[in-house]
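Protein in question quoted in full.
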Amino acid sequence: MEAVPARVRAYVTCVALAVLLCVLHLPGVHTPWRAVTPWWAVTPWWVVTLLAALYAACEHVVRRRLGGTFYPVLLAGAFLLPPPAAALVPLPGALLSRAEQRPQALRRTWRAAELALAVWGAGRVHWALGGRDAVVDSDFPYALLPCGAAVLAFCAVLALLDGGILAVAERVPVRRAWRGLLSRSLAPVGVHGLAGLMMAVLWRSPYGPVAALLVLLPMCVSWWVFAQYHRERAAHQATIRALVQAVDIKDGYTRGHSERVGQASVMIARELGLDDDRVEVLRFAGILHDVGKLGVPTRLLRKNGPLTPEERRIIELHPEYGHEMVRGISFLGEARAAILHHHERIDGSGYPYGLVGTQIPESARVVAVADAFDAMTSTRSYSRARPVAVAVAELRRCAGRHFDTGVVDALARALARYGWHPAVTADDRPSDQSDSSDASGPSVPGPSVPGPPGGDRESVGRGAP
């Protein structure tokens, strides 16, 4: 069993004790009418049992088979039951679920405790705002107010506890531990809260629990579709990572270049106002633009001396090699055109087909600028890195002849607004790049590069193609 710091065990124990106090607090949570009857005497235990079994089944199917978390049953319990009883609903499913990492018992206890405390908090807020009466009377739209407040409380408790475990277990600074946890969970949990409210209203209606359970069917179908989308997206990312890693291994001098070109392509695309789908495609295009180097002999990619005309022609085949490699990958869309044409130039001096102006696909014009920018601002075996401001000035000088003027302007605006914060270069030293605001960089700027800038060693420092 892996060693767990004592502070983590103490934190989990405190949360578990808090749940125990909430459930066993004898004065209890009275009914909304302030009756003196303790909560366990007015709790329909068959409802608790059914909801607990239902959540355990959902935990098994959704969490283990589809991935993610499924909250409608828990929130329905918060809307139907006294808060201490609602806190019991997640316990069997969480305690019996499989933990992916050790120590499993501690992880199960933690998950059960945080969910129970979150459900209890949601139930307290819901009952305090008269939500139970609104559910029983199907009082819409008033029922939405306590429901929304309960969802907010549920998310707040989870965010508070998750931030705490990050700060305690992983030593994340307190100012960062809770950052974004609440805001990221509100929208998805809000949808689950509406489903839980529908379950609770139908449960209290003449149609009964069977109708309430039917609410879960479309939720499970939509969750399955959502999970399939994310699995497909993960497969896409794995495919791209494998291709990029292969290129990085073969051409070690440009390791990290692909990711940085993808980053710059995204900055340009967003500045141009492209929709999110096209921004994602351009990110793929930037990352994979040099995948054709896998078809180029390694000795040419790593050659330090000048290239012969024949060697240069061989290297200039890499866009066509890359296009053939990704031809069958349907999700890349217009990224395939960018891979094929990212060395074309506006004046027709590029390759492989010598396209002119708008004959060059927009995606290729974006990647061409991103590629040239990173080539100039990165230290290579054959050139020193330039400051960001110098690189932008060089791109502007070549705009209209080799690069699309609008794309160059978009990159300059994005750099002025956000700066340039790329990944670490191949030699594990911080990249000699900086924000355009101060144009800082290496203490001595690199030597002037004759001809227009380009992204590959066959064009950088060797003149225009």
Observations:
- The longest helix spans residues 216-250.
